[in-house]
Amino acid sequence: MTNETKTDFSEWLVASDIDGTLNNKFRKLPQRNYDAIKEFVVNKKGHFTLASGRNIATMRGPFMGLPITSTPAVILNGAGVYDYEHEKMLWFQEINPAGYEIVSAVMKKFPSVEVEILTKDKAYAVNAHVFANVMLHADRLLPHKRFSKISQVPPEEWGKVIFLGLPTVIASVKKYLLSIENPQVNFMSSSISSFEMLDKGIHKGVGVKKIAELYGIQHKHTAAIGDYFNDYEMLKSVYLSACCGQAPKAIHDIVKFEACHCNNGAVADLLNYIMYNYKED
Questions:
Q1: Domain at 97-199: CATH code
Q2: Buried-most residue among 39, 90, 127, 208 (CB within 10 A)?
Q3: Long-range contact pairs involving 54-57 (C-beta distance under 8 Å, separation at least 24)
Q4: What is the pLDDT of residues 86-95, one digit of tens each?
Protein backbone atom coordinates (compact mmCIF):
# COMPACT_ATOMS: atom_id res chain seq x y z
CA MET A 1 0.00 0.00 0.00
CA THR A 2 1.41 3.40 -0.98
CA ASN A 3 1.17 6.75 0.83
CA GLU A 4 -0.90 8.35 -1.97
CA THR A 5 -3.84 9.33 0.28
CA LYS A 6 -1.87 9.86 3.49
CA THR A 7 -2.04 13.39 4.96
CA ASP A 8 -0.04 13.13 8.20
CA PHE A 9 3.71 12.47 8.03
CA SER A 10 4.53 13.66 11.55
CA GLU A 11 6.19 10.30 12.25
CA TRP A 12 8.77 10.96 9.50
CA LEU A 13 12.16 12.71 9.63
CA VAL A 14 13.94 13.57 6.38
CA ALA A 15 17.44 15.09 6.36
CA SER A 16 19.21 16.67 3.41
CA ASP A 17 22.73 17.79 2.61
CA ILE A 18 22.86 21.35 1.26
CA ASP A 19 25.35 22.03 -1.54
CA GLY A 20 24.91 19.69 -4.46
CA THR A 21 21.76 18.22 -2.91
CA LEU A 22 19.23 20.76 -1.61
CA ASN A 23 20.86 23.47 -3.72
CA ASN A 24 21.96 23.13 -7.32
CA LYS A 25 25.55 23.38 -8.55
CA PHE A 26 25.19 27.17 -8.59
CA ARG A 27 24.25 27.11 -4.87
CA LYS A 28 20.68 28.11 -5.68
CA LEU A 29 17.55 26.41 -4.35
CA PRO A 30 15.39 24.87 -7.11
CA GLN A 31 11.79 26.04 -6.72
CA ARG A 32 10.44 22.49 -6.86
CA ASN A 33 12.56 21.61 -3.81
CA TYR A 34 11.07 24.49 -1.85
CA ASP A 35 7.54 23.58 -2.94
CA ALA A 36 7.96 19.92 -1.96
CA ILE A 37 9.46 20.82 1.43
CA LYS A 38 6.55 23.18 2.12
CA GLU A 39 4.05 20.48 1.17
CA PHE A 40 5.78 17.88 3.34
CA VAL A 41 6.26 20.12 6.41
CA VAL A 42 3.42 22.66 6.37
CA ASN A 43 0.62 20.65 4.80
CA LYS A 44 1.57 17.12 5.80
CA LYS A 45 3.26 17.80 9.18
CA GLY A 46 6.52 16.00 8.34
CA HIS A 47 9.88 16.81 9.92
CA PHE A 48 12.52 18.03 7.47
CA THR A 49 15.99 19.27 8.34
CA LEU A 50 19.40 20.05 6.91
CA ALA A 51 22.60 18.15 7.70
CA SER A 52 25.71 20.04 6.68
CA GLY A 53 29.33 20.77 7.50
CA ARG A 54 28.42 24.40 8.20
CA ASN A 55 28.42 25.94 11.65
CA ILE A 56 25.60 27.88 13.35
CA ALA A 57 26.25 31.12 11.48
CA THR A 58 26.71 29.72 7.98
CA MET A 59 23.82 27.25 8.29
CA ARG A 60 21.44 30.04 9.28
CA GLY A 61 20.83 31.42 5.78
CA PRO A 62 19.77 28.24 3.97
CA PHE A 63 17.97 26.89 7.07
CA MET A 64 15.91 30.00 7.79
CA GLY A 65 14.99 30.27 4.12
CA LEU A 66 12.87 27.12 4.47
CA PRO A 67 9.64 26.51 6.46
CA ILE A 68 11.45 24.11 8.81
CA THR A 69 12.59 26.14 11.81
CA SER A 70 10.73 23.98 14.35
CA THR A 71 13.04 21.03 13.58
CA PRO A 72 16.69 21.29 14.77
CA ALA A 73 19.57 21.19 12.28
CA VAL A 74 22.65 18.98 12.07
CA ILE A 75 25.72 21.22 11.93
CA LEU A 76 29.44 20.60 11.50
CA ASN A 77 28.85 17.27 9.74
CA GLY A 78 27.28 15.79 12.85
CA ALA A 79 29.35 17.39 15.61
CA GLY A 80 26.35 19.44 16.72
CA VAL A 81 22.56 19.68 16.72
CA TYR A 82 21.21 23.23 16.87
CA ASP A 83 17.68 24.50 17.51
CA TYR A 84 17.20 27.71 15.50
CA GLU A 85 13.68 28.26 16.79
CA HIS A 86 14.98 28.71 20.35
CA GLU A 87 18.59 29.60 19.44
CA LYS A 88 19.97 26.75 21.52
CA MET A 89 22.67 24.12 21.03
CA LEU A 90 21.01 20.83 21.91
CA TRP A 91 24.12 18.66 21.55
CA PHE A 92 27.77 19.19 20.66
CA GLN A 93 30.81 16.92 20.44
CA GLU A 94 34.15 18.66 20.13
CA ILE A 95 37.30 17.05 18.77
CA ASN A 96 39.39 15.49 21.53
CA PRO A 97 43.01 16.61 22.21
CA ALA A 98 44.43 13.81 20.04
CA GLY A 99 42.96 15.69 17.10
CA TYR A 100 44.96 18.81 17.91
CA GLU A 101 48.17 16.80 17.74
CA ILE A 102 47.16 15.31 14.40
CA VAL A 103 46.57 18.76 12.88
CA SER A 104 49.98 19.92 14.14
CA ALA A 105 51.65 16.84 12.63
CA VAL A 106 49.93 17.35 9.26
CA MET A 107 50.94 20.99 9.03
CA LYS A 108 54.53 20.11 9.90
CA LYS A 109 54.70 17.29 7.34
CA PHE A 110 52.80 19.18 4.61
CA PRO A 111 53.77 22.90 4.87
CA SER A 112 51.55 23.96 1.95
CA VAL A 113 48.35 22.60 3.52
CA GLU A 114 45.78 25.19 4.49
CA VAL A 115 43.48 24.54 7.44
CA GLU A 116 40.02 25.76 8.36
CA ILE A 117 38.72 25.09 11.87
CA LEU A 118 35.05 25.49 12.70
CA THR A 119 33.77 25.78 16.25
CA LYS A 120 30.12 26.20 17.23
CA ASP A 121 30.05 29.76 15.96
CA LYS A 122 33.56 30.72 14.86
CA ALA A 123 35.76 30.04 11.86
CA TYR A 124 39.55 30.04 12.07
CA ALA A 125 41.85 30.01 9.04
CA VAL A 126 45.42 28.76 9.35
CA ASN A 127 48.06 29.24 6.64
CA ALA A 128 45.25 30.49 4.36
CA HIS A 129 46.31 31.37 0.82
CA VAL A 130 44.13 30.15 -2.04
CA PHE A 131 41.92 27.23 -1.06
CA ALA A 132 40.93 28.37 2.42
CA ASN A 133 40.15 31.85 1.15
CA VAL A 134 37.95 30.46 -1.62
CA MET A 135 36.02 28.34 0.91
CA LEU A 136 35.70 31.21 3.37
CA HIS A 137 34.28 33.40 0.60
CA ALA A 138 31.98 30.74 -0.85
CA ASP A 139 30.49 29.86 2.55
CA ARG A 140 30.54 33.50 3.68
CA LEU A 141 32.69 32.57 6.64
CA LEU A 142 34.31 35.50 8.37
CA PRO A 143 37.09 34.05 10.56
CA HIS A 144 37.43 35.79 13.89
CA LYS A 145 41.16 35.45 13.34
CA ARG A 146 43.63 34.26 10.76
CA PHE A 147 46.70 32.44 11.99
CA SER A 148 50.01 31.51 10.44
CA LYS A 149 50.65 28.65 12.90
CA ILE A 150 48.31 26.04 14.33
CA SER A 151 49.78 26.61 17.81
CA GLN A 152 48.22 30.08 17.80
CA VAL A 153 44.65 28.77 17.48
CA PRO A 154 42.56 28.57 20.70
CA PRO A 155 42.23 24.81 21.37
CA GLU A 156 38.61 24.87 22.51
CA GLU A 157 35.40 23.66 20.91
CA TRP A 158 36.85 22.49 17.62
CA GLY A 159 33.88 20.84 15.96
CA LYS A 160 35.40 20.23 12.53
CA VAL A 161 38.79 20.62 10.87
CA ILE A 162 39.21 20.87 7.08
CA PHE A 163 42.55 20.27 5.38
CA LEU A 164 42.71 22.13 2.05
CA GLY A 165 45.13 22.19 -0.88
CA LEU A 166 45.93 20.94 -4.34
CA PRO A 167 44.33 17.55 -5.10
CA THR A 168 47.76 15.87 -5.19
CA VAL A 169 48.64 17.32 -1.79
CA ILE A 170 45.30 16.37 -0.23
CA ALA A 171 45.68 12.85 -1.64
CA SER A 172 48.99 12.59 0.24
CA VAL A 173 47.44 14.05 3.39
CA LYS A 174 44.60 11.56 3.18
CA LYS A 175 47.00 8.65 2.75
CA TYR A 176 49.01 9.82 5.74
CA LEU A 177 45.98 10.31 7.99
CA LEU A 178 44.42 6.98 7.10
CA SER A 179 47.72 5.25 7.98
CA ILE A 180 47.51 6.41 11.61
CA GLU A 181 46.64 3.53 13.93
CA ASN A 182 43.68 4.18 16.24
CA PRO A 183 43.61 7.95 15.59
CA GLN A 184 40.72 8.68 18.01
CA VAL A 185 39.09 10.89 15.36
CA ASN A 186 36.96 10.37 12.26
CA PHE A 187 38.04 11.34 8.73
CA MET A 188 35.90 11.96 5.65
CA SER A 189 36.34 13.22 2.09
CA SER A 190 34.40 16.32 1.10
CA SER A 191 36.06 17.07 -2.28
CA ILE A 192 39.25 16.34 -4.20
CA SER A 193 40.77 19.45 -2.62
CA SER A 194 39.65 18.88 0.96
CA PHE A 195 39.69 16.24 3.68
CA GLU A 196 37.87 16.62 6.98
CA MET A 197 38.34 15.54 10.58
CA LEU A 198 35.78 15.23 13.39
CA ASP A 199 35.80 13.52 16.76
CA LYS A 200 35.81 9.72 16.79
CA GLY A 201 32.49 8.21 15.73
CA ILE A 202 31.01 11.53 14.60
CA HIS A 203 29.25 11.95 11.25
CA LYS A 204 25.98 13.46 9.98
CA GLY A 205 24.07 10.30 10.82
CA VAL A 206 24.80 10.79 14.52
CA GLY A 207 23.04 14.16 14.43
CA VAL A 208 20.09 12.78 12.48
CA LYS A 209 19.70 10.01 15.06
CA LYS A 210 19.73 12.58 17.89
CA ILE A 211 16.88 14.49 16.23
CA ALA A 212 14.89 11.31 15.59
CA GLU A 213 15.23 10.39 19.27
CA LEU A 214 14.07 13.88 20.25
CA TYR A 215 10.80 13.39 18.36
CA GLY A 216 10.40 9.70 19.12
CA ILE A 217 10.66 8.85 15.42
CA GLN A 218 11.21 5.19 14.60
CA HIS A 219 14.17 4.19 12.47
CA LYS A 220 11.84 2.90 9.73
CA HIS A 221 10.61 6.47 9.23
CA THR A 222 14.03 8.13 8.86
CA ALA A 223 15.31 9.22 5.46
CA ALA A 224 18.26 11.21 4.14
CA ILE A 225 19.62 12.41 0.83
CA GLY A 226 23.16 13.42 -0.12
CA ASP A 227 25.60 13.58 -2.99
CA TYR A 228 29.13 12.83 -1.76
CA PHE A 229 31.32 10.79 0.56
CA ASN A 230 30.78 13.10 3.55
CA ASP A 231 27.14 11.91 3.38
CA TYR A 232 28.09 8.22 3.27
CA GLU A 233 27.67 7.40 6.97
CA MET A 234 24.43 9.37 7.20
CA LEU A 235 23.00 7.44 4.26
CA LYS A 236 24.07 4.16 5.85
CA SER A 237 22.47 5.11 9.17
CA VAL A 238 18.91 5.94 8.03
CA TYR A 239 16.24 3.54 6.82
CA LEU A 240 15.42 5.20 3.50
CA SER A 241 18.63 6.43 1.90
CA ALA A 242 18.73 8.49 -1.29
CA CYS A 243 21.29 10.22 -3.46
CA CYS A 244 21.36 12.78 -6.23
CA GLY A 245 21.87 11.67 -9.80
CA GLN A 246 25.38 13.13 -10.02
CA ALA A 247 26.64 11.32 -6.89
CA PRO A 248 29.66 8.97 -7.25
CA LYS A 249 28.91 5.33 -8.04
CA ALA A 250 29.96 4.26 -4.53
CA ILE A 251 27.14 6.40 -3.12
CA HIS A 252 24.59 5.08 -5.63
CA ASP A 253 25.57 1.56 -4.62
CA ILE A 254 24.43 1.99 -0.98
CA VAL A 255 21.13 3.88 -1.38
CA LYS A 256 17.57 2.65 -1.81
CA PHE A 257 16.32 5.60 -3.87
CA GLU A 258 18.09 7.41 -6.70
CA ALA A 259 16.87 10.94 -7.37
CA CYS A 260 17.56 13.25 -10.29
CA HIS A 261 20.54 15.59 -10.64
CA CYS A 262 20.60 18.28 -7.94
CA ASN A 263 20.06 20.96 -10.60
CA ASN A 264 16.62 19.50 -11.28
CA GLY A 265 15.31 19.20 -7.72
CA ALA A 266 16.57 15.96 -6.18
CA VAL A 267 15.06 16.69 -2.75
CA ALA A 268 11.64 17.09 -4.35
CA ASP A 269 12.08 13.68 -5.97
CA LEU A 270 12.66 12.06 -2.57
CA LEU A 271 9.86 13.89 -0.76
CA ASN A 272 7.34 13.20 -3.51
CA TYR A 273 8.34 9.54 -3.41
CA ILE A 274 7.76 9.41 0.35
CA MET A 275 4.47 11.32 0.18
CA TYR A 276 2.91 9.56 -2.80
CA ASN A 277 4.71 6.37 -3.85
CA TYR A 278 6.59 4.87 -0.91
CA LYS A 279 5.40 1.45 0.21
CA GLU A 280 5.65 0.65 3.91
CA ASP A 281 7.30 -2.68 4.68
A1: 3.30.1240.10
A2: 208
A3: 54/18, 54/118, 54/139, 55/80, 55/118, 55/119, 55/120, 55/121, 55/122, 55/123, 55/159, 55/160, 56/80, 56/82, 56/89, 56/120, 56/121, 57/121, 57/123, 57/141
A4: 999 999 999 9
